[in-house]
Specification:
Elements: E1 5-6, H1 12-17, E2 23-28, H2 33-49, E3 54-59, H3 64-69, E4 77-82, E5 85-91, H4 96-102
Parallel strand pairs: 1-3, 2-3
Antiparallel strand pairs: 2-4, 4-5
């Protein structure tokens, strides 16, 4: 994979819930400064880990249904899904190394 792809309310089920393997969804909005700070870290993470984990971005302004469904209260929020189930949630800005550590991908 290697780069971030967008997911929408309409494509969420197919791209995330029915995906084989882990999927990390970044719930974000263009007006959110912390989201913009996280973007390059997530881009680097996707480039490095894209063969192990699918990384998607969901614009909460344009796609409010999934944000509501998963109770996203603040952004950025990253949610790790495996086999259609939420496995982990990371709220706020983390660097690439911390993200890997939290997801069990480091070392």
């Amino acid at each position: 994979m290697g780069s971030l792809q967008a997911v929408t309310d309409a494509t969420f089920a197919g791209e995330v819930l029915e995906a084989k393997g882990p999927v990390l969804v970044d719930f974000w909005a263009p007006w959110c400064p912390p989201c913009r700070m996280l973007a390059p870290q997530l881009e680097a993470f996707a480039a490095e880990q894209g063969d192990r984990i699918k990384v998607l971005k969901l614009n909460t302004d344009d796609n409010p249904a999934m944000s509501r469904k998963y109770g996203v209260q603040s952004i950025p929020t990253m949610v790790l899904f495996e086999d259609g189930q939420e496995k982990q949630r990371i709220v706020g800005v983390v660097n690439q190394e911390e993200l890997k550590r939290r997801l069990g991908l480091s070392g």
